[in-house]
Amino acid sequence: MNDTTQTGESHASGMPRVPLRPKIFTALAEGYDAKALRADLVAGLTVAIVALPLSMAIAIASGVGPERGLVTSIVGGALVSAFGGSRFQIGGPAGAFIVLVAACVMQSGVEGLILATMLSGMLMMVFGFLRLGSYIRFMPYPVTVGFTTGIGVIILASQFKDMFGLSLPGGEPGPILPKVAALWDARGTASPMAIGVAVATMAMIVALKRFAPRLPALLIAVAVVTLITALAGLPVETIASKFGELPRFLPAPALPDMSWDKVSAALPWALSFTLLGAIESLLSAMVADGMSGGQHRSDMELIGQGIANIGSALFGGICVTGTIARTATNVRSGARSPISGIAHSAILLATMMVAAPLAGSIPLAALAGLLGIVAWNMIERHEFAALTRASRGDAMVLWVTFLVVTFRDLAEGIVLGFALGGLVFIRHMAELAQLREGSAPAADNPEAQDPDVLRYRLHGMVFFGSVARLGTILARIARWPRMVEIDVGEVSFIDSTGAKMIATLAQQLQRRGGALKIVNARPEIAQALTAFGLDQAGVEVSLK
């Protein structure tokens, strides 16, 4: 079950390219017997129990009907497992998408959302075929903590309306600050019954997770609260009272309107869905790798996620992504292959066909309480505090990402956090690059004792980030017409900007009657230097 010998990423790690082959083929080729099937069916049942209430709750919080959440888990979940690059990934609607999906529905309607979901699937497939999966995984940890925490705060705020049974005749604003203001203004319409249902649901989930962690806390809590609410006839809003009775079958597949005007309007949303979906899915796959000891295929995972989003949109579903909690449940439940994910989707379909009327009795306050727990768990309090104390750079990336995601825009927060993280890294690497006087000349070097030879040793990465500081020092060196010898044996990397800086130094020395000599160069460093004509300029470059 350990796939590390087959699945190392190619261009990012220097290993051979991984074939674009779904992981299910690898699992079946290893030998699949009745014992493995039983393990996958048990894991699939366990995950389905977790996914049933969660899928409906996420869909409702996203501004669409609960049936679309079930369709997403059934169709999208099966396709992720069948075509993805992870052995244990479970696909479906995710809490991280609530903010984006709700904003898309508010602006473009459900039809616009479905079209954006389909376009996102196409873009993900393109990313996979272009082998961009490994690069998408290079996300700074402060960015992931910042945007996950920001999403958790937004989701938690979005559940207060149903938790407290508030009435907002003008609708609930999207941005968090106007939302909180509107909820506060409507505090007089709070329903004690709804509050009791939400609190009871949350208390039961917390108690079950603490004292009976092996039991499906989410489903049990929602089922018990729903039963008590129905038997007592409590006046609370339910799924059926707001959305009508849930359908018992999947809808017929249909293409959305793909006129140019519709596509151009949906494309910005599709780009946001693609960016978030790729990050969320690959993070989830990496979590599964850490728990199982395997290794996923990043590019194939993106292709599988793309196929799943296209399939979900065809059946009227919403965005599909890898779900960390359900994937972790799948691993802990003893899954052996992607068959467990397909089984989870089949069990959800069977449940939809048999128990759809019963699901209509679920109180919205109970689902809000469930999502409240999910959102609270998404707020990574300990990691947030640790990164705030870690370093000034990490703290800045963390807080900028968190604040922009929470109060501005999710996609902007990720892009800005990533860019800021890159700048922090560049500055750190630039500070490690140093030019020191003295070197260790070879014993056969005739100039070893020559006082007219200035010797320097270059350390670290010589690239565009460190050129400004190093270039100032080298410019001062070039003022004296002497032989300058630079030991580059401890240079780990040099880019074109760094090579050009050294070439400029050689030209300046030549004009003043001096000369430059490069010693202890590794082959790749020597190649980068000679590419800028140092050998033609009479600069001697000796290999290490």
Automatic annotation (TrEMBL):
Q: Does the keyword Metal-binding apply?
A: no
Checking InterPro entries in the record gives: SLC26A/SulP_dom (IPR011547), SLC26A/SulP_fam (IPR001902), STAS_dom (IPR002645), STAS_dom_sf (IPR036513)
Protein name, entry field: STAS domain-containing protein
Compartments where found: Membrane
Keyword Transmembrane helix attached: yes
Q: Domain STAS spans what residues?
A: 451-544
Q: Give an example GO biological process.
A: transmembrane transport
Q: For this UniProt entry, which segments traverse the membrane?
A: 41-62, 69-90, 96-129, 141-160, 190-208, 215-236, 266-288, 346-376, 396-426
